[in-house]
User: Fold this.
Amino acid sequence: MATRLLLVRHGAHADLGRVLSGRSDACGLTPAGEAAVAAVAERLARGPKPLGLMASPRRRAQETASLLARALNLAITTEPALDEIDFGAWTARDFAALEDEPAWQQWNSQRATAQPPGGEAMHEAASRLLRWIATLPERYPAGLVIAVTHADLIKAALLAHLGASLDGYWRLEVAPASVSILELWPGGGRVLGINLGAGETAE
Assistant:
C-alpha cells in the first residue's frame, strides 16, 4: 500500500499578501488564521490517525503545526526541508515595492530558472523538498503523514508529481490553511487533491 502525504499550508498571518515574509518570523497567525487551521484540525481528527507531523521551522508554520498537534495528539518534528524559500534581499520587502524590479518580474515569469538576489532558486528549494518526500514511503509505509509548509514549496511538490514545469506555479492555487494530498510509493507518486478546505479534506 502507498503512503499518503498531506501538505498543509500554514494559516493566515498579518503580512499575508502585503509583505514577502520569506524566512522572517515577524508575524504569527491571525485569529482568523488560527480559526481556519482549527477547522482543518477538527476535520483531520475524524480521519485515520497520522503517523507523523512535520513542520517548517518558520513561526507561522510552527503555530499551525501546534494547533494540529493538539487536535491529533501528535508531537511536531521540525524539518528543514520544509522551510520557506530563502528570498535573500527580498525577505520582508513589501510586494508593492518589488513590482517594478526586473529581477522580481523575471522571478514571477520564469520560476524554473530565476533566483532571488542572494537567495535560493525555486528549483533548489524543490530539490531539497523532493529528496525528503522520496524518503517517506520507506519511513512510513502504508501510513498517513502531515507536513506543514509554504505555498511555493507545496506548488513545487505538486508540479513535480504532475510532471509539470515550475514555470507553471501560477496555475495552482494553494490558500492559507489548505490541504493538498500526495500518494507516494518507492520511486514515485501521484496527486490526490489540491487546495482542499476543511470541509473537503480527504479522510
About this structure: The first helix runs from residue 31 to 45. The first strand starts at residue 3 and ends at 9. The chain has a mean pLDDT of 95. The domain at 3-196 is CATH 3.40.50.1240 (Rossmann fold).
